[in-house]
Amino acid sequence: MTGFDDRERQFEEKFAHDEELRFKARARRAKLVGLWAAGLMGLEGKAAEDYALSLVAEDLKETGDQDIIDKLMADFRAHG
């Protein structure tokens, strides 16, 4: 039965690895979008970095992309 146990462990490790990569890709995407949006709003340097990180944190609140879209739209409206 160890063959089945090894195979199960390998599938679990692959799943964990895939989820970690998916998380990192989403965080990177949110940060890059945040830096782009910060540039459009005239933020530079530390302020732009902080804004991008706030967008990453916003993405962790809910599944899906709607939370990021809502924050971006509200911030764009606030900055004209």
Fold blueprint:
Blueprint: H1 2-40, H2 45-59, H3 66-79
Helix pairs in contact: 1-2, 2-3
Number of helices: 3
Radius of gyration over all CA atoms, rounded = 18 Å
Report the sheet-strand fraction: under 5%
Indicate the mean pLDDT: 90
- Structural class call reads mainly alpha
Estimate the global geometry from the Cα principal axes: elongated
Number of strands: 0
- Give the low-pLDDT segments: none
Task: Please explain how this structure is put together.
The protein has 80 residues and is mainly alpha-helical. The protein contains 3 helices and no strands. The longest helix is centred in the N-terminal third of the chain and has 39 residues, at 2-40. The radius of gyration is 18 Å and the shape is elongated.
Give a quick summary of the entry.
By secondary structure, the chain is mainly alpha-helical. It has helices at residues 2-40, 45-59, 66-79.
Features:
85% helix; 80 residues; mainly alpha
